[in-house]
């Protein structure tokens, strides 16, 4: 593994490398075909601020079109963290020509685990806000195959939404930009890379360690993998052995 990867993810808050995080690469580890990108808390906060700037620019550009975003739907679970961070920037306004955005939620499940999509997405929790005649931002953490975004966009349209704007920190599917225009995003990640956001550090560990074990990894091998990915010592100490020894 290149030490450069660790340098990027361990950089302090005042030294975040914007160019790296716009086109990041993950850590290559043993016993897995996927690469893993560990996103620290302060990097998630930074990316959300950059997304909020883009949303604000969209709002300014659409003052005359009357297509400004008035509502945002956070898709749980993934969209909750970027959505809450965006809420801090966008749920109020200092510009009378830019409306504050009303945030709500909708629960959708499409992945059983890293790199393991279900046959089709399904609704776990119903839409919490009225979107009729509104321009709605759909907030996700990552757009991969685009199935969730399409599913949610269609669902909101059926409930009267006038226009959908997809908002996500990262895309894997570049075609979604043309298909669901407009799309507001921060960067791209390779299709073979699993992003570990602050809300799924433990979830990824407890789902992937057994996979490595079943493919021949020892407890020490799993520890080395987690260190290469960038996991902090305290999470390894709490969860690794119990997860590895679980039947």
Automatic annotation (TrEMBL):
- CDD domains, sorted: PRTases_typeI
Q: Which Gene3D superfamilies match?
A: 3.40.50.2020
Phosphoribosyltransferase domain span: 63-183
The entry's protein name is Phosphoribosyltransferase domain-containing protein
Q: Which organism is it from?
A: Phototrophicus methaneseepsis
Give the lineage: Bacteria, Bacillati, Chloroflexota, Candidatus Thermofontia, Phototrophicales
